[in-house]
Amino acid sequence: MASRLFSLAKPFLNPKFPNPRPFSTSFLITKTPKKHKPKRPKPDSPRTRSVTPDSNKIPHFESLLTRDAKYRFLIKTKEFLSKQPEQILRLDDAGKLYRELGFPRGRKVTKFISRYPLLFTSYRHSDNKIWLGFTDFLDQLLLEERSIMEAMEEDRVTRIRKLLMMSKNKRIPLSKIYHKRLIFGIPEDFRDKMGKYPDYFRLVVEDDGKQILELVNWDPSLAVSALEKEFLVNEDKVKKAFKFPVKYGKDLGLEENDVKKLNLLNTLPLVSPYSDGWKLDSWSLEAEKYRVGIIHEFLSLTLEKRALIHHIVEFKEEFSLTRQTYEMLKRQPWTFYLAGTEMNWAVFLKDGYDENGNLIEKDPLLVFNEKLYKFAQMQEEEEEEEEISGFREKLRGD
């Protein structure tokens, strides 16, 4: 038996037949290509979970948030550079300022600069360092923006006065107004201009160094909310804008028409945002009407009739808002639209827009921003050069 096994093994031991080479499998695809892998669903979390179900979403409001994200780098970098000496920034430093310039951490800032060749430029300075700055074309645009700001100064002063009149103690920290100035169209240098209006404002410095802006004189003509003005024009429309159902026991046996009449008495937030509504019991129906009125008026003072939640919460103490702001606004879908995710959502004032999602009244600064976005999309191409040249000539003529 052993001899038989040995004879069978001889061909493999014969030097005339060397051992075969190892069989290579390197050409085989052992991993599934990434593009063919099934996409994992995003984890359900406040960061990704929408505040409005897909079935109830209004596309034109959602698209405005998408636009904001798209131009975040443009707007934040324009604001940041405008405050720098000579309006330039070393590129090495720019790459570290991802929060200030509005680009994701870990990304290269040069990638975002290259998206706007008409607006931003980089160049090598005499110190052999590369610097970021505005193009001559954007410098011309900024002159136009400054001119608009100067022309709208009286309107901006009125907005600040109305904010102070709505506040609990008729005073707001100056830093809060400054941080949220863009949504109201307030200029960067407004703090330096407060001294021009001693009849309206008083600047107080507290013991800890905090600067507080106080209201000097109450103006009854300003103490009329946008909602109250609309009520005089279209009473029925305003009555249908809000609903504050009255809770009643079933034992009352009210008929359907009687229930409607009872609820009709509670459809309008009659507590003016310019009143002392903050003194009301915070859990009462009247107090909720007051807070709804505050947010409605706050949004009506913004340029785009909308604001991110942190814009509103910034004034939580001054406007006597509660932690239940989100739930309160959800109860008023006829007037407010909530967009975004639970972690970072925005509230829109529906009556500020038409049925196509366009603002009914456009501030001159918004018209300028739309033009800026248009130029941001342009590249140096022949078919666009004529329009750009025409705009430059117009600026020279002005």
UniProtKB/TrEMBL annotation:
- What PANTHER family is this protein classified in? OS09G0473400 PROTEIN, PROTEIN WHAT'S THIS FACTOR 1 HOMOLOG, CHLOROPLASTIC
Q: Where is this region: Disordered?
A: 11-57
Pinpoint the PORR domain residues.
57-380
Origin organism is: Gossypium tomentosum (Hawaiian cotton)
Its protein name is PORR domain-containing protein
Alphabetized GO MF terms? RNA binding
